[in-house]
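Appendix C: a fully annotated inverse folding record. The material below is reproduced so that readers can follow the format used throughout the book. The structure is listed first as tokens, followed by the designed sequence.
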């Protein structure tokens, strides 16, 4: 991490709780990424074993479609127009999803949501800490602004608003660092 001391001794890092919060968020993010990689690998391996669901597109006769998600079913066989095909496609896709999930569970010992739950909770807690912390030094303030802007932690409750503001503040903080 760059030195944002701006005339404040480096020991400010040990005095300002922002630095610990940043490190906690980095650790939580890294733990999530490691677990996501394992989960993705298990899901990719399972998906490669279970055949895709390939069905006729009822809206475009002669075209076949590989189903990748439930939303696509409504696109190719709208429930109101093709209720039997819609139901059949749902059953086929549900079966494939259940088969993939069973293989994933056998590989990682849990459903993906359960597998990710602990690291997601840690990441959310670390994000909340970043949002609630009040820097006690100038270097802490600058470090927080720059870290949040660069890391762009995902927040499903505020996907753009706060981060756009923080990005602007980060540019200012970086400029201050250069001047210091």
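Designed amino acids, in order:
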């Amino acid at each position: 991490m760059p030195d944002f001391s701006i005339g404040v001794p480096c020991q400010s890092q040990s005095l300002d709780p922002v630095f610990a919060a940043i490190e906690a968020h980095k650790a939580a993010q890294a733990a999530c990424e490691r677990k996501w990689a394992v989960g993705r690998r298990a899901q990719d391996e399972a998906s490669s074993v279970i055949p895709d669901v390939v069905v006729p597109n009822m809206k475009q006769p002669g075209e076949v479609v590989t189903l990748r998600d439930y939303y696509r079913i409504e696109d190719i066989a709208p429930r109101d127009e093709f209720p039997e095909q819609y139901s059949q496609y749902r059953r086929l896709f549900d079966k494939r999803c259940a088969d993939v999930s069973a293989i994933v569970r056998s590989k990682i010992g849990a459903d993906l949501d359960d597998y990710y739950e602990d690291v997601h909770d840690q990441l959310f807690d670390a994000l909340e800490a970043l949002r609630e912390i009040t820097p006690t030094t100038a270097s802490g303030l600058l470090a927080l602004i720059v870290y949040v802007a660069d890391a762009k932690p995902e927040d499903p409750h505020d996907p753009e608003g706060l981060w756009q503001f923080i990005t602007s503040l980060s540019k200012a903080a970086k400029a201050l660092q250069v001047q210091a």
